[in-house]
Amino acid sequence: MKFIGCLAEERQITDNVLTDGLFSLSYGQILGCFEQFNRVFTENGFEPHDCFILEVENTIPTALTLLYLLENAYSMLLLPGGSLIGNSPPLPSFCRYALTAQVLDRDEVEALNPARFLNITANPAWEPNSPLLEETSAKLLLRTSGSTGTPKMAVHTHANLHSNVLNCVHRFALSYADRVVIPAPIYHMYGLGAAFLPSIAAGAALDLQKGANLLKFIQRETTFNPNVAFMTPSFANTLLQTRKSAHLYRLTVTAGDRFRTDSFARYETTFGPLVQLYGSTELGAIAAGTPALPMEVRQRTAGLPMPDVQFRLQGQDSEGELWCKHTYGFKGYVDMRGNPVDLGADGWFCTKDFARLSPEGYLEVLGRSDHSVNRDGLLVFFADLEKIIGTLEQVEAVAVTAGSETERGKKLIAYCVIAKDSSLSAKAIRAHCFDKLPRRVVPDEVRILDSLPLLPNGKVDRVKLTAR
């Protein structure tokens, strides 16, 4: 996936900077770092067909390693930082080495030499004849989010990922004149395929932020002066609650859980145009809005499908379970030994989301099919209940899960995070639901929590939530 070799020769881009707040380098300096990677890979006897595990954090050393692997057509599996501690989870046998970019000192010149920061570990479970590597095209593997169960590994070719990236460059009109901030993790498809790689492809200045720390975000906002941001809805809502002064962005992109209705207009007043992206680990960017759309459309929908994406609704003509076919989507799943997992469905992928398509083709996601229950013989989406509870100003976050069986169907349990200066009670929240919703949608229980457990991609970790 050739980005850097082309960009480093364009005069208006060479001085643009990539930073993580600790280390910075320009596009013009990246090729010099790649020469150092060449020496390290040669000294370690790495082969072109080797597949690597790369622990990914939002840091410049990690970003350089990732870009080098892509630029030189290596296959890799991306895992969150810290995944290799204690060998948990077990390492897939098709990966020969694990790479971790770990800075041991702050001497900026030497610290960005991979001979200093790159930790290399041989995989004791490696098997040289994995079915995954029989087909020689370069591959990038991502684990699914695992918000409701055990993650799987999705396989993308570099060629398809590259086309997916260019779709995002064009949809968001990214260019070398942009200054992009990314507090979303780049080991996940949103942070990687919609934010980081499109920003690199456009030659934009880039600020990678590790850990999505709000105070650091505000401090770096002053020094880096970004005009484009990619973040999760939960981070955007927290930013809106905390920051009182305005900082107008050309564009903010969110993806993941639904953005709170009452917060959308307030966010735009303070930070400028906001658009929602709909995507998945398997298909990458599926649909996204643009600032040119009316605010009501941007708030309600994820915009139009990306080029070469087809939609099919399993149900009524304009509403039902969403199936997608994407020319540049994944090739399939593999198990820990690299054996393919049969998908079937003739190239169509079931998103497990219920959706509505407008006459103009805009995609409105109504809720997850596995985030719903049958009550009184009718389907109830958790998202509908979450939306109504979220209209209470004192509620900072809400998530709904199913409980034990009742006469009406599965019990509905709403977990709410209340503003610190609020005395809002669980009883008052239920009363609000009685006023706004049919009886079958009213939660059987409301539980007040200090915070909701989150996955690194910003989605609610419903497995941990239901275990409480």
UniProtKB/TrEMBL annotation:
Question: Is Nucleotide-binding a UniProt keyword of this protein?
Answer: no
Q: Name one GO molecular function term.
A: ligase activity, forming carbon-sulfur bonds
What is the superkingdom listed in this entry's lineage? Bacteria
Domain AMP-binding enzyme C-terminal residues, every copy? 385-459
The cross-references to InterPro entries, in alphabetical order and at most eight, read:
AMP-bd_C, AMP-bd_C_sf, AMP-binding_CS, AMP-dep_synth/lig_dom, ANL_N_sf, ATP-dep_AMP-bd_enzyme
Tagged with keyword Ligase: yes
Q: Which UniProt keywords apply?
A: Ligase
Pfam families xrefs: AMP-binding, AMP-binding_C
Q: Where is the AMP-dependent synthetase/ligase domain?
A: 128-333
Q: What is this protein called?
A: AMP-dependent synthetase and ligase
Originating species: Thioploca ingrica
